[in-house]
Input
Amino acid sequence: MGATFPSTSSSLSPSPVSSSALPIGDHDKASFGNGKNGRPPGLLDNAMKRKGSFIQLFVMTNILFLSLRSLGQKYRINELADENSNLRKERDSLAVRMASIKSSLLRQAAMDSSGLLSSHLHGLFQNSSSSGH
Output
C-alpha cells in the first residue's frame, strides 16, 4: 500500500491526498476514519461522541410524551365534566318525576274514604325524605 498520510504531529495544514493515490481497499477505511472493518460507527459510538445531542433528543422526546399525556388528560377531564353535567340534569329530572308521582299518589289516597292509605303513604314519604334522599 503505497499511500502515505500526513502525520498529525508534523504540521497544522495537512497536505492534500488525492483519492486516486489510495489503493482500492483503503477508500472505505479512510472515508470513515476509524478503520474498523470498513463499517460506520454504531449507535453507541455516535452516542458517546455526541452526548449532548443525545441527551437533548432524550429530553425533548420525554417532553413530547408528557405533552401528549397532558393533552389526553385534558380531554378526559372535559369528557368527565360533560358526563357530570348530564348526570346532574338526569338527577334533577328524576327528582321532578318522583315529586310528581308522590303528589299524584297522595292526591289519589286522599280520595279514599277510610284514610288508611293516605296515612300509610304519608308515613312512607316522610321516612324516605328523612333518610337523606
User: Anything to note?
Assistant: The first helix runs from residue 26 to 32.
